[in-house]
Amino acid sequence: METADLIQENTLLKQKNASLESAYEHAQEQIHRLFEQIQEQGKRLAEVEQLKHQLDWFKRQLFGQKSEKQIIGQPGQGNLFERQNPQAIKPEKTTEIKAHKRRSKQRSPDEVNNTGLRVDLSVPTETIEILSPELSGPHADQFKIVGWDEVSKLSMRPGSYVILLQRIAKVCRKSDESFLPTPHAPGRVLDGTCLDVSCLAGLMVDKACYHLPLYRQHQRMKDAGIRVCRSSLSN
After folding, report:
1. Measured between alpha carbons, how far is 70 from 63 in angstroms, rounded to an integer?
2. Reduced to 3 states, what is the DSSP secondary structure of residue 141?
């Protein structure tokens, strides 16, 4: 009887184990489906937030024909984008005004010529003389210049960079060829830099006053034929 009872108990345990495994697999499937639903719901919420952001952006656009704020049916309200019938437009009343004289425009004394180009004394001026071919021909002695017609143009030249080469002379006596102390070169503003104080000041002015980043200044120097490491501009 004990052996039969053990066999029966073992059979019941196997059945319970099988039912537990089935329930575990079913629970795993339910958890997996729930996880997929949570992910799908998160994607939908992100899409809804994006659509809300786009809708708010379109609501802020208050210009144009389609987005013009209008109150439909308001008496006396005109339409900005529709043309009126030319026959329905009533001729406007006109008033005759007597003729009058206008004062001529007064030009500033700092203008270069009548073209209205205004410059100060800090801008350099280069004069280009255009001569007639007769002045350099075989009969040039028969002609003379009686006046000039001037035309001014504003020109720009790329890259006004200059290399300052400081040559320190080594001097010795002619009698005994003994060397004199070599003078020291002017000190640098920043140790270890190859840039002059004028170049450093120009970089700071372009960055702070004209909002020109260092990488654009580096590109401008490269276009001007100067190969400088970008870290030399920021260090």
Report:
1. 11
2. helix
